[in-house]
Amino acid sequence: MEFETIETKKEGNLFWITLNRPDKLNALNLKLLEELEKAVSVADSDQDVRVIIVTGKGKAFCAGADITQFNQLTPLDAWKFSRKGREVMDKIENLNKPSIAMINGYALGGGLELALACDIRIAAEEAQLGLPEINLGIYPGYGGTQRLTRTIGKGRALELMMTGDRIPAKDAERFGLVNHTVPLSNLESETRKMAEKISKKSPVALALIKEVVNKGIDSPLISGLSMESIGWGVIFSTEDKKEGVNAFLEKREPTFKGK
Ligand code: CO8
User: Into which family does the record put it (predicted)?
Assistant: First the structure.
């Protein structure tokens, strides 16, 4: 599939999506958001794809929404633009398949919000992360107020939103905002290693983990625990469960088919 503002690549069971507006630090305009949504749909409907990786070309992962558009947007355009961004982030978060944000450089504003919609974040040591919207007299609009708070807690999230400060990846790792920090030269290989490891697990079990964690985090503990138990009923009906248990008993590696 041909895109203008992103690149996609299928590599075995991995699907790479690279934001491709390096001259504008991969700022998110409507076109890019629409293309990203399409690419995610393609990856989602392809049975061979087990893990989706999102990254950016050049020195940024993504420097946020395209600020140069802000003064031209009518209120209706702004609503469309903001809604499209939210739809894309929600779609990524709610995919049945795991996603990894490979943060190669700046992840700011909408760029950090995109990374937060992914399940796992691996960052280059050189990367800087933040929500600088406050410096523009606005505030995060692609889910950052909610997802950052749920990821690192209220105090630290409010500090990042209120100061607009950029923090180095190592600090982000300390806060639990990124899972791992590695030198830029190792970023792709370390991300691939993790993606390949996850791609060998049962797709059904992975989908259920996402469902129970994502829905559970917004529910009272008792409801989350109940969802977990009900999911156990489902997982015990799968061929992947039989394969996993039999492989253990037969002392061999399992081959999961997602059934
Ligand atoms: N939008 C548009 N263009 C951008 C953006 C952006 N967010 N960020 C960088 N660029 C452009 C620059 O204008 C520049 O273009 P040009 O060469 O044509 O002048 C090019 O990218 C390179 O950038 P710099 O020269 O500034 O590179 P530096 O290395 O000097 O600085 C920074 C890098 C620190 C990342 C700097 O570019 C910067 O501060 N960028 C803005 C970051 C920001 O404020 N992001 C938040 C945007 S708002 C947002 O994301 C809200 C999301 C919710 C939207 C809701 C819908 C309406």
Answer: Belongs to the enoyl-CoA hydratase/isomerase family.
